[in-house]
Amino acid sequence: MHHDLVRKTSPAQVKILAAAQTLIQAKGGADVTMAEIARAAGLSRQAIYLHFEDREALLLALARYADDRRGLDTEVGHVLESSSGVLAMTRYVELLTRTNPGIWVLARAADAVRRTDPAVENTWQNRVQVRLKVCQAIVARIDSEGALLPGVEQETAVDLLWMLTSLRNWEDLVQVRGWAPDKFSRYICGILARTLTGQCEVGGEMQKGKETPCAGTHPIR
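The chain above was modelled as a monomer; its predicted structure follows.
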């Protein structure tokens, strides 16, 4: 789960993080300096360091702050409490489809500079690991319930769930190709259910006698 996101943030830290988020979104890149963030927050550069050890610590806190504002920790908790692993997988896709618009601009800004900015890259990889852990928990449950398709290894299933639910896939299909959010969710759920479990499940309910994204396909052997 995202329990590592649940940390107390002081009012001063919230002010700094909100200013940093606004600045990054306006600039279109995460290559902002501590001095720029300080000015945006109406504080001195020295005051910023009283609350954050360095720029990397601030950016990591900003990622958590953005997740907290989306209520992601609580939402993921509800997903993992679903009545089955397959349903949890479906609800996770639906959750990300619904919440991705709120983080997209910030993520694009980070992605634009992370390969040349170690602090941004470390923050990016931290968030990757957080999402990977959720995928591992979902797949482990699917496997423990005997729903994972024979011949599909847990690690492979995790990688597929992680990749297909990535922000990049959502951006390419929804933002670039113009898919409606419900179409994205429906097809990703269908692909995952069919590939990992051999079922054809959309929106948490087995579809019978209806045309679905995975109709006419066969389980992987």
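Confidence is low (pLDDT under 50) at residues 1-6, 202-221.
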